[in-house]
Amino acid sequence: MALGKFIGGTLVAGAAVATYARWEASSYRLRRHEAAALPEDADPLRILHLSDLHMTPRRHRLQSWVASLAELRPDLVVVTGDFLGHVDAVDPVVAALEPLTSIAPGVFVLGSNDYYAPRAINPFSYFAGPSDLHPDRPELPWPDLVGALTSAGWAHLPNARAMIEAGGLRIDVRGVDDPHIERDDYALVAGSADSSADLSLGVAHAPYLRILDAMAADGVDVTLAGHTHGGQVCLPGYGALVTNCDLDRRRARGLSRHERPLAEFAPHDQPDMVLHVSGGLGTSPYAPLRFACPPEATLLTLTPKAGG
């Protein structure tokens, strides 16, 4: 009798946790952070950072919520990959982003889940290290996504650099293709920032240390990334259990500083690089759950450096 009550209670508790985790996966939040990274006389720059939408045609609430972010009137939009979660998701993504593409410049990179369709995976496998790309995953129509966003005026930066203007500032942006599936080639974007730029910005889908170290060594001021889902399932008071890359779990989500190694292009008195890792907005269609890690977009306001 006692054993039966224990099992019954455990099943009820498990069902309650699963119900909550499914609700939390669509409990979208806007986070606001501030970081000093601009020249002394610059006005603040408001960057809307989106990541890991994993959009499907049925995620209407996510589509509407992303579209509503245009009300923030950001100076710049940065999307760090994994837009897609379904073969028919290009049109829903483009529609959700259209209010933003029509009012603000933007830059973006792709993630592994833009290139290849999602598949079921054993969640416990993440504890063994970063996930592998299964060779039989079919490709998604990522060229259609890139074509639509670049036609709308946003810059795609797969191992590429661009000079853009936003908020009255000149920004030297370098992006890498997804390090998680080894599509990155940092040598193609390496080197010091353009001397005429007010800000040097790095963009990557997955925040692997080899990319963060290289950007920091080259004097990049701020780097934005996603991929980790903030851990997706976290323990209150402990945080993320895994990051699905080699970044430490304490930086799985949010704002931090990444130490600059001694290098040719990084002045010795330059502050450490600002790193923002987005917890992301979506989940794989095969694991639509989050726990103690609600989906998020971030409005990152960059301000002048003290004595900058």
CATH class: Alpha Beta
Assigned CATH superfamily: Metallo-dependent phosphatases
Distance, first to last CA = 71 Å
Look at the structure and give the mean pLDDT.
Answer: 91
Element-level helix/strand string = HEEHEHEHHEEEEHEEEEEE
Strand order of the largest sheet: 1-14-2-3-4-5
Helix/strand structural class: alpha/beta
> How many DSSP-defined strands?
14
In helices, the fraction of residues equals 10-25%
Q: What is the total number of structural domains?
A: 1
Count the DSSP helices: 6
Major sheet: size, sense and barrel closure? 6 strands, mixed
CATH topology: Purple Acid Phosphatase, chain A, domain 2
CATH architecture: 4-Layer Sandwich
Shape: globular
- Range of strand content: 15-25%
Compute the CA-based radius of gyration. Answer: 20 Å
Low-confidence stretches: 6-14
Write a short abstract of this structure.
The protein is of the alpha/beta class and 308 residues long.
Keywords:
308 residues; alpha/beta; Purple Acid Phosphatase, chain A, domain 2; six-stranded mixed beta sheet; 14 strands; globular
Could you please describe the fold and organization of this structure?
With 308 residues, the protein is an alpha/beta fold. It has a single domain, classed as Metallo-dependent phosphatases (Purple Acid Phosphatase, chain A, domain 2, 4-Layer Sandwich). The protein is built from 6 helices and 14 strands. Helix 2 (60-68) runs parallel beside helix 3 (90-101) and helix 3 (90-101) packs parallel to helix 5 (142-151). The longest helix has 23 residues, at 2-24. 43% of the residues are buried.
